[in-house]
Design brief:
- The chain is of the alpha/beta class.
- It has a domain of about 300 residues: Amidase signature (AS) enzymes (Alpha-Beta Complex).
- The protein has 16 helices and eleven strands.
- Helix 5 packs parallel to helix 6, helix 10 packs across helix 12 and helix 10 crosses helix 13.
- The structure holds glutamine.
Amino acid sequence: MPKLQDLQAHEVVQGIKEGLFTAEEYVSSVINRIEDVESKVRSFITLDSERALTSAKLIDRKFKEKEDIGQLGGVTVGIKDNISTKDIRTTCASKILEDYFPSYDATVIRHLKDNGAIILGKLNLDEFGMGSTTEYSRYHPTHNPWNLDYVPGGSSGGCGAAVATGECTVSLGSDTGGSIRCPASFCSVVGLKPTYGRISRYGLISYANSLEQIGPICRSVKDIVMILNIISGKDIHDNTSMSSSPITINNKLDKFDIAIIKELIDGSDLEVRKTVYSASEKFKEIGCIYNEISIKNLHYALPSYYTLASAEASSNLARYDNIRYGFDLPIAEYKWDTYFSNVRKNFGEEVKRRILIGSYVLSSGYYSKYYLKARRLRSLLKLELLKLFKKYDLLIGPTMPILPFKFGEKIDDPIKMYLVDINTVLANLAGIPAITLPIGFSNGLPIGLQIMAAPFEEQKLIDVSNALENTINIQRRPSLV
Ligand code: GLN
């Protein structure tokens, strides 16, 4: 049997229900793992081991008394630190929310707790989810567990690294333009950005709310399904949420029509291209039909994403005035005519840049030139994609165009950093589901395959991912940590 901390979520629940080990034993093994690796990886902003152990003991008591321990009984979950957790500090990796303890749980957290999951702590991110490396966290960067000199991806870098190293069983991230898929790909784990509306965003601290969704990051497709089903559904607190049918793991695969997106593959590094092409061969092995297609308007995706995301960010972040919640500002700085600007200087450079760009593209005179144009391009892209989905079941390409890179390589040039998201923003603009699956390594650095489907067609993503996962056998646990 593998070490306790290496078990997947479904094995943990099964093990506890069969009496093979207790929830307390399992949670202790995960905490030991954290003690061993956290100083090198730095996935967490806030760790709540004590509360986790108390919850584990409660589950063991329930089990002894023959009560239901829930579908996730004993599973440890790490939460991206932009998802509200009642009485657990929620910082968004920003100084501006340094002392913020939410008074309520996000809907996804409520679902997890109702099903017996144990919230282990809050995971690192780029400030407010803006970035692709976690270098923009205002606390500390997270390291890629496959090579500690490299970035883990972002913005949910803590989520990717913690799941890959076994510092938690599964994690919840958020994806505005790739923030689940990028770190999942860079850390060699599975990450899903669901269809816009499948999961309630209530309690997710907004960065760009027309684009983002919460989603799971796990070590297997089976675990993704388990978490997805529990956190999905209509919620009265989020009018954009919808009900959807549950997803299942099927062992029989339909003969899907799959198309690789030419522009995404052509724009990628040679090593990434080679690995994606060889994984694509597997589609034929598992009985799918394989084509190559072009997306005419693809070059509009990145500029329209950054225009819209910044516009929404500038509006969403206007609420941080340090009056309703915030941090301790020295008394000398409380002056009526400078207070807000002094407070808002505490945002990091990248967040300030987004607020400036966003305010600019929304200002009268530039609104139609930039914001409206970006909205139109978004619709155009969405229409083109929906048309393609009439012909093909799934669209694929590399999740990331490049391999994970070293710290400091892109941080000085925002455009270089933005370009990293070129393959992932498409799914957010169109509101469609997209999954990333680990498919190989180059020089010990992970490579992921992205698969996209039409809105609410997650079942197709899961069917094909499950079949691929069973065909591609790669190392799961980084040997470095
Ligand atoms: N890197 C992208 C950005 O900075 C995506 C971030 C995200 O999905 N939260 O906007």
